[in-house]
Amino acid sequence: MLNEMKLQAYGKINLSLDVLRKRPDGYHDVRMVMQTVKLHDNIDLYREDEPGIRLTTNLSFLPVDENNLMVKAAKLLMDEFHIESGLRMFLKKVIPVAAGMAGGSSDAAAVLFGVNRMFDLGLTRDQLMERGVKLGADIPFCLLRGTALSEGIGEKLTVLPKLPDCPILLAKPALSVSTRYVYEHLNVADPGGSGASRKYPRNRHA
Q: Helix 69-80 crosses helix 125-132 at what angle (to 10 degrees)?
């Protein structure tokens, strides 16, 4: 088993995002094309003898308890597989927070990948996706990466032809708005059609 790992958690952009309707259960029917970009956070994982999950970051305003998706992701696997060792994590945050780039979800996906390898759990990528979607709708895509059509609550992914290499300008204004807030306050007329559904859980951003 590995004692430490260095990981890169890549951000994503939406090449298209169609919000079709809001369902009575609070979910939104959506269909979107997602694309990984090279902008990434850096994550260091260290296995420790002392039980527990500890997280530190370079940004003082980020939660480091179970309100952080990284901690939730590590706990999900460590509880399921009864891992008694401890895990120390350091996050160098580069992806802008509350920018719609799935920074928190990408960090959580990297932790799922890392814990799986560090403790030799033997889970496939699809099995990690099945677990990750319980924490956040973007996590399955962040495990897949590349270019994909995303449907359902994020678990229905169809790989699309790779986007040609090209420069992409990312501009983040000073205003920060959480994805959850946007969806909760979005006024979408019901077109009467069927489509994919998405609902954002609380604390989905790291």
A: 120
Q: Residue 176: beta bridge partners?
A: none
pLDDT for 42 equals 98
How far is Cα 205 from Cα 45, in angstroms, rounded to an integer?
19
How confident is the model at residue 28, as a pLDDT? 75
Among the listed residues 120, 108, 155, the one whose alpha carbon sits nearest the alpha carbon of residue 9: 108
Kindly tell me if the per-residue pLDDT of 203 is higher than 80.
no
Residue among 78, 69, 54, 72 nearest 9 (CA): 69
3-state secondary structure (DSSP) of residue 37: strand
Backbone conformation region of residue 135, classed left if phi is above 0, alpha if psi is from -120 to 50, else beta: alpha
The residues annotated with a catalytic role in the active site are 12, 138
CA distances for 137 relative to 1, 75, 88, 141, 170, angstroms: 30, 18, 25, 8, 22
SS3 109: helix
The larger pLDDT score, comparing residue 137 to residue 85, is at 85
Measured between alpha carbons, how far is 70 from 140 in angstroms, rounded to an integer?
Answer: 14
Find the distance separating the first CA and the last CA of the chain, reported in whole Å: 27
- The label of the residue with tokens 């004692």 reads 3
- What percentage of residues in the chain have a pLDDT greater than 90? 70
Residues 6+ apart with CB under 8 A from 98: 176, 177, 178, 179, 205
Angle value at C-alpha 14, between 38 and 178, nearest 5 degrees: 95
